[in-house]
Amino acid sequence: MYRTNALRLVLGAAFVLAVGPLRAAAPPSYADLLAATRPSDWRDTDPRYTLYVELPQGRVVIELAPAFAPGHVRNILELVRRHYFDGLAILRVQDNYVAQWGDADHRHPLPAALPAVEPEFDRPIAAELPFTRLADGDVYAPQVGFTAGLPAARDPASGRTWLAHCYGMVGVGRDDDPASGSGAELYVVIGHSPRHLDRNVALVGRVLSGIELLSGLPRGGAPMGFYEQPSQRIPIRHIRLEYKVPAAEREHLQVIRTDTPAFDALVESRRNRHESWFARPAGRIELCNVPIAVRKAPR
User: Fold this and answer.
1) Is 2's pLDDT higher than 50?
2) pTM of the full structure
3) Which of 158, 197, 202, 266 is deepest in the core (most CB within 10 A)?
4) CB 62 within 8 A of CB 210
């Protein structure tokens, strides 16, 4: 019996030396999981709340969030219908912060009928706002996660929820008065997530496509990134609602749903990176580091 067991040990050692240690198959990557998603894991954007911002560099597509800022979104839609933004300019690009546009020279008076908007920095938690909670915790809020493809936070104790200042989010510029933001001046986060702005500004949506056109703009040399000369400003050719654009010229974008098992798997793949480059997976993920995938709708 002893000789037989010893022989088996020797043969087993020889086999390991010959073929090497067996390795478990690596978990699928984010790209693998994304490729395996089903049509039901995606949602179409709503053409009534999708903006096309046409710059000399190309098109920026913004999806608005009326559920979180209905008054501001209503004003923005009215301004777009009246062609208010056409011919205005990006007048501020602050490094690692925001790109902002508006009427710096006060040449485009606001429509007299445009209603004043009370601050919409947060709103009540409600059943019609599904919330996929991120289990990793957060510095700025008791809970964070995703609502309809948007990074969101909430405080169950107060019953309030709000959008978070992640890369690509769109907000309403204002003065010191919290009620001074009408929707006529907008900014996009182009740098590290300025979460300290959460619940201090009305966030009205997210850039779905073309963010690189904004983040790649020359930085302004004046304080807060304002351009020193009017000639440096980036003109806005026009802003249109998607449903007003001929079908052949539309983007037909889809956004990954954030309330499915497929999305949970995508988040986990970014929380623990198993690609060969990573020496040590982080084991945690921050709200603004979770990518919300966007794609062209399959034809």
Assistant:
1) no
2) 0.90
3) 202
4) no
